[in-house]
Amino acid sequence: MSKTSIDHENLKIDAPHRVGTSNEHLRVDDGVVVVVTQAWGPDKESLVGVSDVTFDGYSAVTLLVQADGREGLVHLSPFHGDRRKAGFLDIPVGTRCTLLCPVSRKPLDRVGPVGGGSPGDYYAIYLTPRLSEGEMVCISDIWGDYHSRIVDNFELISSWAAQETPET
Question: Which helix (H) or strand (E) segment is 15 a member of?
Fold first, then answer.
C-alpha cells in the first residue's frame, strides 16, 4: 500500500503522556500515529486478521457492513485518522449502515450519538476482549462520516472528525 495518509488537520491526540508507549492493543508513536493492533467484536471475536488485507504491514480491522440492501466486508486501516479502506466500498456517502462483526454477524454495540451536527451514532470496536467501554474505538454508522474516537483506560486518546469528499 502507499504511504500512510493520516488526516493530520482533523486528527487530535489527547493523551501526550502516552506518546511513545505501546500495549497489547494500541500503539502511540511520536504524538501523531495511533495504531489499533487488536480489536474485538460484541462476542469477543477478533476483528484484526480476519483477512489477509494489510495497511503498511499492519492487519486491517474488518467489519461486515450492510447498506442499501447489500452487504460486504470492509477492511479499515488500523491507523487512526487514515481514510484508507478496502473491500465493499460502493456505498453512497451519507448512507446509514449497519455495522456487524464479520465472524458472528452480530451488530456492533451502540455507544450513542456522534453529535457535532452528524446524524450518526457511534458503535464500539473494543480494544480488549473485556469489552469495556473504557477501551474502545467509536466509529460512526454513516458512510463517509469520519467522526471517530479512541478511548483507552477511560481516557480519550485521539479523535478524528472529517467528512469524506466523494471520489470522482
Answer: none
64 DSSP 8-state letter: E
Strand runs labelled E in 30-154: 33-36, 54-55, 58-59, 61-67, 70-76, 85-87, 98-100, 110-115, 118-126, 136-140, 148-152
Dihedral (Cα; 35, 7, 12, 10), 10-degree rounding: -150
79 and 34 in contact (C-beta within 8 Å)?
yes
Q: What tens digit of pLDDT does each residue of 25-84 get?
A: 545 555 456 788 899 999 999 999 999 999 988 999 999 999 999 999 999 998 877 888
Please give the Cα distance from 102 to 74 (Å, whole number): 9
Cα distance between residue 29 and residue 19, in whole Å: 6
Amino acid at site 54: T
User: What residue spans define the domains of the chain?
Assistant: 8-160
Selection from 35, 44, 124, 125 nearest residue 80 by Cα: 35
Secondary structure (3-state) at 88: coil
